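Dear H.,

Thanks for agreeing to be a second pair of eyes. The structure we're designing against is below in token form, covering all 369 positions.
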């Protein structure tokens, strides 16, 4: 089922929660709505479910206008943050509940329940009550209940936020596996970037009621359109500067750290234009004795503020020297080994040209909605 939002707006009095949303979710997608708290993502999901009325615009399922259709007629399966399971019913009875309302025959009902129990790997827990299950198992029951009705669209609203870190990882794998098996068009609302990057077919980032960018995870990470997207999807360093000129296969930008060369740009620039450069922490490498990177890099001298050792990686907090002393830089070093770099050390860092991206100038987007 393809889902289309056409110029959809939601207002509460004078306040606009979602503004002129245009978005197409292809049939069979696992599509993420991502953004900070209050950005409008849950309101968007509730409008799709029919739980909130659209102020203007249309919502289409394939070519069918469902904007005014009651929630009960849309064929929506929904998994909530708090699971919403009946505590006095067994796993089987929780899953059967929605099917009984649809008046399935006993044979069809059993077949449907057994099918989703297998999908969600709950076959051995059918006679347990929710209170006898772990958080991850309860989440799978909620998912099985939503899948049992064979929905046109599955909606997941922060489904993993109540789970611990280990269970979240397990449930990511479970949801991805179930989606591959069922191929149900799924809209997943979260503020967790790792969830969306690791699971989604496409990600839409929202802020203050506006859709900022939609793209596949890898493209969104490597080709963000704005400094906000670059900083929200993972970590990045934003270095403000002035565009100098195009130089061969790159772009020269004058910054407080000196003239830097970026290998990519998402904007057309003229000399003197204000721009920002995004460079991810993993693309910055502190120099060790005798170490020189194989690929072309910018060379910058920085001062270490703090080093955090994490075993498989190490994180450096640095700042510039001279006129660039106010510029803060994060660097990540994987498989760090032994070195004597610590707070106060002056180090030369290599900034990979191919991993530096010229963006529009950074601007204050406000706190959100």
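And this is the sequence the design step returned. I haven't edited it by hand at all.
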């Amino acid at each position: 089922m393809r889902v289309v939002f056409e110029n959809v707006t939601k207002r509460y009095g004078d306040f606009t929660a979602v503004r002129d949303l245009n978005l197409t979710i292809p049939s069979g997608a696992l599509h993420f709505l991502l953004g900070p708290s209050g950005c409008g993502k849950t309101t968007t999901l509730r409008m799709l479910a029919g739980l909130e009325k659209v102020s203007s615009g249309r919502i289409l399922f394939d070519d069918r206008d469902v904007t005014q259709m009651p929630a009960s007629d849309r064929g929506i399966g929904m998994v909530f943050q708090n699971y919403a399971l009946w505590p006095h019913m067994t796993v089987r009875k929780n899953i059967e509940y929605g099917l009984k309302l649809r008046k399935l025959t006993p044979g069809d009902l059993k077949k449907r329940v057994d099918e989703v129990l297998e999908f969600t790997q709950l076959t051995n827990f059918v006679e347990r009550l929710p209170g006898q299950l772990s958080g991850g198992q309860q989440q799978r029951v909620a998912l099985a209940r939503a899948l049992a009705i064979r929905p046109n669209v599955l909606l997941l609203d922060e489904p993993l936020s109540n789970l611990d870190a280990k269970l979240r990882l397990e449930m990511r794998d479970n949801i991805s596996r179930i989606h591959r098996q069922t191929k149900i068009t799924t809209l997943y609302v979260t503020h967790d970037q790792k969830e969306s990057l690791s699971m989604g077919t496409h990600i839409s980032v929202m802020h203050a009621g506006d859709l900022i960018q939609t793209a596949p995870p890898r493209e969104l990470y490597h080709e963000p359109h704005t400094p906000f997207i670059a900083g929200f999807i993972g970590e990045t360093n934003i270095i403000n500067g002035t565009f100098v000129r195009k130089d061969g296969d790159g772009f020269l930008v004058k910054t407080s750290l000196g003239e830097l060369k970026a290998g990519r740009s998402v904007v057309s620039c003229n000399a003197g234009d204000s721009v920002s450069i995004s460079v991810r922490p993993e693309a910055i490498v502190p120099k060790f004795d005798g170490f020189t990177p194989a690929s072309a890099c910018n060379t910058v001298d920085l001062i270490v503020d703090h080093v955090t050792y994490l075993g498989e990686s190490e994180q450096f907090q640095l700042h510039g020297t001279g006129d660039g002393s106010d510029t803060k830089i994060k660097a990540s070093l994987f498989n760090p080994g032994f070195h004597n770099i610590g707070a106060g050390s002056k180090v030369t860092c290599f900034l990979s040209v191919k991993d530096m991206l010229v963006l529009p100038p950074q601007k204050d987007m406000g706190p959100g909605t």
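Two observations from my side: The helical segments are 41-49, 91-101, 106-119, 135-148, 165-182, 193-199, 217-222, 227-232. The chain has eight helices and 21 strands.

Warmly,
E.
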